[in-house]
Amino acid sequence: MRPTLLLLSGLLLSQGGLAAQVEYDLGPDVSNYQRFVLYPHLQKGFTALERGHRDRAIAEFEQARRLQPRNPVITLYLARAYERFGEESRALALAREQLAVTPDDGDLLAFAEAVQRKHPLDPACKLLECKVARADRDLQDGDLVGLTAALADPALARSTEGMGLRRNLLQRALGEQNWALAQAQFAWFEDAGTLSQGERKQWVTMLLAQGKLEQAIALRRRLPSQDGELDLAIALALAKSGDQGGLGRYQEAHAPSFTGAAQEREWLQLAANNGTLTGQETLQFGENQGFYVGLMLPVLRREGRWQELDKLLAMAPAQRSAELGFELAWHQGQWPALAEEGRRLVREARQPMVALEQVSYRLQRAGQGAASRALLIEYWPYRGATQAGRETLIRRLSALQETPGAGPLPARLAVPLSDPDLRSLQASLLARAGQCDGVRQVLGDLSSRYDASSWRALGACYRQDKPGLAEYAFARAASFGLPQDVRQLAYQAYENRHFDAALHAWQQLVLAPEEQEQMAAIRSALDAGDLPQARQWLNQYRAAGLPLGADYWRALARTQEDEQAIASLQRVIAMAPEARDYAALAQHQQRLGNKIEARDALHAANGLEPDNREYQLAYGYALLGNDERQAASDWLEGVYREGDTQLAEQLAYINQSLARNQKARDYASKAIDGEPPAQVSYDLRRLHEDLGRRWTVSVDAWTGTGQGTVSGIGGNAVAQSYAQTEVEYRLGDEPIRDGKTLSLYGRLYGSSQSQRIYHLDEGSPDDGTYVEGSGGNPLDFRDPTLGVGVRWKPFRSQALFFAAEELLPLNNSQGGEHDTLIRASASFLNDGKYSDEWHVGESGWWAQNLYLDAARYLRSQQTSLVADYRLSYHHKIHLGDTLEPYGHVQGRQYWNDKSPDTGYYRQDGETLAYSSGSDDYSLLMGGVGIRWNHWFGETRYDAWPHKLSLGIEYQRRLKSDPAIREIESGKAYDKDTLMMTMGVRW
Fold first, then answer.
1. Angle, nearest 10°, between helix axes 629-639 and 645-657?
2. Residue 903 half-sphere exposure toward CB, CA atoms < 13 A
3. Fewest beta carbons within 10 Å, which of 1, 76, 252, 545?
4. Which of 52-61, 382-391, 928-937 has the least mean pLDDT?
5. 835, 809 in Cβ contact below 8 A?
C-alpha cells in the first residue's frame, strides 16, 4: 500500500500545483476530490483551445462533462469550445440540453441568446429581436401571409417593432388591394385603440372602393365633419352606384369645407347632374363662379328664366358671345351668323365634342349641311367625345356625305379609329365617298365586331384584286342573314371556286325565276358534287320555262350516266361547242370503253384550245391508254416543258417501253432534277442505271463446316464450299428492251472438299446411298468448271430466264467430259414492297423470294429441279446498309437417266471410274441466317449499281430420299452445316 499512497500523493501535489495556476468556479456542488479529478481535463482543454487543437480540446471538455454531467459550468466550457470551432448548432443544442436541467443558469442563458442572435432568421430563435427580423424579412419578400402569421405572436404584436410592421402590412395590403387583409389590420388597430385619423380615412376610402357605401358613411361620421375631400369621394361613389336619391340626401345634409376649387366644382357638378342646384348656392371659391354659371345656364334655358340668364351672363361675359350669340342667331334665323357663332362655340366650349354634336345638328336642321359637314371634318376624329357621341357624329357626317357635290374626304379620315364599332361607321362613311383604299385600310384588321354593312363594303372593295378576302368579307356580311348578302357570297364563292361554300349559300335562298341565278346555283351544286341538289334545281329550271340553251344541256350532262350524258353533250356541241364539252365527252367515252372516240374528242378539244395544258396532257394519255405509245411519246414530247417533273417521269417510262433507252434516261434525268418524292426519285435513278447497264460482274461464294447445297452448282454435287464468278454482257443496240434482255455470259465455278453420292446397285448386300469426302482444305478449289452461254429474258416485268450453256471442266477429276446445260429459272413474289431493292423512307422492310430452277444436262442426261423460298427482313442501319435476318427452305430433285452410271474418283493420283446404282435422289434443306448488305457507287442520276452481301447461315438437311450414309462407316451422314456466304454484284 505505501508505494501506492506515495504515488497518489505525488499526483495530488502535482495537480494542486496546476490548480493553483488557474481557478475554475465549478459551483458549490463540486467536492474537492471532484475538482482534483476535473482540473487536469479542464486545464488541458483550455490549453488545447488556446493552441487551436479542436479535437483535443473537445475531448478534454467532454471527459470533464462525463465526470460531472449536470454541472452548468463544465457544459458552458464545452459549448464555448464548440462555438470557437464553428459548431454553433451543437453548442446551442448542448446549452439547451443543460438548461433543461439548470433553467436558471444566467451564464448559459446569456450564451444561448448570444448564439441565437448570430442567426436571427433561424425559426428556432424565440427572442423578440429574432421574431422582428423574421417578420421584417417576410415584409421585404412580400410574404404577407407569413408576416400576418408572425404578428399573431402577442409578444411581437404588442412591441413597438410589431406595431410598425403591422402598419407596413396595412399599407402593403392597401397597395395590393388585398381588402380582407387590410380590413383585419384596421380592425386590430381599432380594437387596440391605436387607429389614427389618417388610417380611419384610409379605411373609409377602402370601403368606398369595395362599394360598401353604408359602412363608409357610418365610419365617416367618426371623422371631422368638414372634410370636403371625403364628402366628395362619398358623393362620387353614390353617383357611380346610381343612387340619385341617396346622393341628393347626402349633399343636402352636408356642407363640406373644400380644400380646393376643383373639389367644389365636382360637388357642384354632382348637384347639377342630380338636379338639386337651386341657384341660391354660396360658393367658397370665387374662381368657380364661371363654372357655376355654366351649370345654371342650361337650367335657366330649359325653364325659360331669361331674366336670370341675363344676370348670370353679366357675371360671365366670356360665355356671352359664344353661347348667347349662337342662341340668338338660332332664334332669329340668321344662318350665316349661326355657322360662324357655332364654330366659335365649339372652339371655346369646355366640352368641344358635346358642343360639336349640338352645333352640327342645329346647322343640319337649319339647312346648312355644307357648314355642318365642314365642321365635322375639321374636328375629326372627335377625341374627347363619348363612344355614343362619336358614333352620332360619324353617322351625321355619313348622311351629309350623300348630299350632291359633297366631294372626297381628306386622307386623314382613313386612319383607322381605335374602336371596331367606330371603324364600322368610318368604313361606311368612306364607302359612301367611294374611297376603297380607305375602306381596306380601316377594316384591314377584320374584327369580329364589324356590322353587315362594313363587311359588305369591304367585300366590294376587295373583289377585284383580293377575291379570297372578298369572299371572307361577304361571308361575314351574310352571317347577319340578309338575302342580298347571302346571294353576293354565293357568287363570290363560286368565282373563287369554293363550290361547297357557294352551294351552301344558294341553299339558304329562294332562287329567283331568272336564268342567270338559277344556272349559277346549278353550277355550284355540280361543282360541289351534290348531284341530287343539281337535279332538283334543273327540274325546277325546266318547270319554270326558262331557255334550254347550251348551258342547260351542259349542266344536265353532268348529272347523267354516260350514254345519256353523251347525248346531252352532243346537243351542246351542235349548239355552241367549247373545248370543255369535248373533254367531258371524252371522259364518258373512256368510261364506256370507247377509247378511239375518247381520243378523237380530246383531239377536237385541243383544236379549240391548243394552249390548254390539261387537254394536251389528257390527249397524250388517251393515246397511251389506246396503246398508241409511239404517238403518245411524240405528242407528249411536243408539249413537254422544262421543269414539268411529272411529265418527264411519264416520258421516261414511255420511252423505256419503246426501247428508246437514251431518251428514257434523258427524261429520267430531267425528272430527277425536278426533286420528286424520295421513292419516285430512287425508282427513276434505278431506271436510269439499269437502262445504261451493259456489263455485269457477279461473284458468289460460300463455305461451311459441313456439307450443304446451293442452287446452280449442277448435277448431284454436294459441297462444303463453293465459288462462282460470272461476267454478263447484254446484246443488242439497246442493252435492255422494255425489260427484255438477251445476254452473253461466262462463268467460272468450282467447289472444295466436295463429296460424291454413291448409289450402289439395287439388290446388292450394300444397297443404299453413301457419301464419301475427298478431304483437303475447304478453301482449296477442286473441280473448276468454265461455262459460256446465252441467257434470254423474254418478259418485261417477270423475272423469267432461259439459258443455254456449254460447260467445260478444267481438269480430269470429272472424267474430262464437257456438257451442255439447258436451264429455265424464275423468281416470284420478289417485286414491289417485298423486293430486295432498297426502300426509301422506311426503317426497314420485309422481303421474300420464290426461286424456281429447272436444269437439264444434255450429254450426261441429268436433270435437276430446285425450289427455294426465302423470307427476310431488311433492317436499315445506315444509308445504303441493311442487316437482313432470313430463313429459307429449299427442295432439290435430281434424276440421272443413264443410271447405273459411271462415276469417277481419285486414288493415288489417278482418276478411276466406278459403276453405281440409280443416282436419283431428293433433298429438302432448311436454313436461317443473317447477312449484311451494302449498296454503293451511286451518282446523282444512277441508283447504287453495286452491292456487297456478307452473311452467315446455319443449314440443316431436313429430309433426303433415299437416306444418305457415310461410305466408310455406314452411319447416317451429318445433317448440319454452318456456312459463311458472300455475294458481289458490280
1. 150
2. 23
3. 1
4. 52-61
5. no
b/e 689-720 (16+ beta carbons within 10 angstroms → b): bbbbeeebebebbbbbebbbbbbbbbbbbbbb
What is the DSSP-derived secondary structure letter of residue 447? -
The grid coordinates listed for 580 are 370543255
Evaluate if residue 375 carries a pLDDT over 50.
Answer: yes
For residue 331, which amino acid is it? H
Query: How many CB atoms neighbour CB 390 within 10 A?
Result: 23
Tell me if 555 sits within 8 A of 534, measured CB to CB.
Answer: yes
Q: How many helices (H) and strands (E) does the chain have?
A: 41, 17
Do 343 and 376 contact (CB within 8 A), yes or no?
no
953 grid coordinates: 447461315
- Residue 116 neighbours by CB distance under 10 Å: 19
Nearest to 552 by CA among 587, 585, 526, 530: 526
Amino acid symbol at 927: G
How confident is the model over 722-735, as pLDDT tens digits?
Answer: 889 999 999 988 88
C-alpha cell at 276: 338639386
- Three-state SS at 958: strand
Helices (H), 479-561: 483-495, 499-507, 515-527, 531-543, 550-557
Phi, psi of 422 (to 5 degrees): -70, -35
Question: How are beta strands 844-857 and 902-907 bridged, if at all?
Answer: unpaired
> Could you please report the per-residue DSSP string of 772-811?
EE--S-TTS-EEEEEEEEEEEE--SSSEEEEEEEEEEESS
Q: Residue 124 corresponds to which cell in the numbers above?
A: 428556432
Q: Are strands 964-966 and 769-773 parallel, antiparallel or unpaired?
A: parallel
Strand order in the sheet with 755-759: 755-759, 769-773, 964-966
| 553: its cell numbers | 344541256
Kindly provide the b/e burial profile for residues 27-65, where b requires at least 16 CB atoms within 10 angstroms of the residue's own CB: eeebeeeeeeebbbbbbbbbebbeeebbeebbbbbbbbb
- Dump pLDDT digits (tens) for 209-260: 888 888 888 777 777 766 777 888 888 888 888 878 888 788 777 778 888 8
The cell 433507252 sits on which residue? 661
Half-sphere exposure of 612 (CA within 13 A, CB side): 18
- State how far the alpha carbon of 464 is from the alpha carbons of 441, 458, 489, 491, in Å: 16, 11, 15, 13
Angle (CA) 565-570-572 rounded to 5° is: 95
Judged on CB neighbours under 10 Å (0-12, 13-18, 19+), 862 is buried
Q: Residue 438 belongs to what H/E stretch?
A: helix 436-443
- The size of the chain, in residues, is 986
What pTM was estimated for this model as a whole?
A: 0.51
CA 428/CA 409 separation, integer angstroms: 12
CA distance 862 to 718: 15
Per DSSP, what are the bridge partners of residue 931? 884, 951
Contacts 24+ apart (CB under 8 A), 462-470: 463/492, 467/492, 467/495, 467/496, 468/496
Distance CA(279)–CA(311), nearest Å, equals 12
Q: Give mean pLDDT, residues 148-163.
A: 79
Classified as helix, coil or strand, 816 is: coil
Among 730, 686, 724, 950, smallest CA distance to 835 is for 686
Cell of 663: 431518251
Helix (H) or strand (E) holding 297: helix 289-303
**Distance, CA of 368 to CA of 356 (rounded, Å):** 14
Q: How many CA atoms lie within 13 A of 343 on its CB side?
A: 14
DSSP codes, 646-675: HHHHHHHHHHHHTT-HHHHHHHHHHHHHT-
Q: How many CB atoms lie within 10 A of CB 465?
A: 10
